[in-house]
Amino acid sequence: MSKPDFDDIFMELAVSLAQRSHCIKKHVGAVLTKDTRIISIGYNGPPSGTHNCDEEFPDEGCSRDSKGSCSLALHAEQNAILYAVKNKATVEGSTLYVTLAPCLPCARIIYSMGIRKVIYLYSYAAYKGLGIDEGISFLEKFGVLAEKYPKSIRITDSLI
Q: Fewest Cβ atoms closer than 10 Å to its Cβ: which of 64, 67, 69, 151?
């Protein structure tokens, strides 16, 4: 019996976590690992204790900021990093698995926290209609390994 690669296990978990998101536009999941161990998980949505967009604003979602993004939500990678730090886990040298490539602000946080590698499933640029994945370009420029996950995963949630 062949054993699954850790990359497969962690990306499949990120996909499963994305299904927990309360966002009505996009579901994103993240898994933060170090030395084949999970140190934190996250998915996109509003801060804990505020509200759930799909329950309180099922038709239009949260109010939007000047760039058209949710004015309240945290991104999946932000949630994973913040939870790890809140619980005193060291994220330096870790690997982040995320279903959507990091946006530029998230890439800055990833770099600043010393995360050494990002493996992503889908392009943020393709999702947003941008010419390039700015977050990936930023990470690569400053020495963070960024790789598109090479395999396909069966996904049942159309928002992922």
A: 67
Q: CA-CA distance, 64 to 67, in Å (whole number)?
A: 7
pTM, two decimals, is: 0.92
Question: Cα separation of 132 and 142, whole Å?
Answer: 17
Q: What distance in Å separates the CA atoms of residue 119 and residue 100, rounded to the nearest whole number?
A: 9
Residue 128 region by backbone torsions, left for phi larger than 0, else alpha for psi between -120 and 50, else beta: alpha
Give the whole-angstrom CA distance, residue 120 versus residue 122. Answer: 6
Alpha helices in 87-123 (DSSP H): 104-112
Active-site entry in 56, 77, 92, 134: 77
Whole-number Å distance between alpha carbons of 65 and 102: 19
Task: Round to whole Å and give the CA distance between 6 and 136.
Answer: 22
Compute the residue count for the chain.
160
For residue 78, what are the CA distances in angstroms to 29, 47, 53, 55? 10, 11, 18, 22
Contacts of 113 (CB under 8 A, 6+ apart): 81, 85, 91, 92
* Residue 134 annotated among the catalytic residues of the structure: no
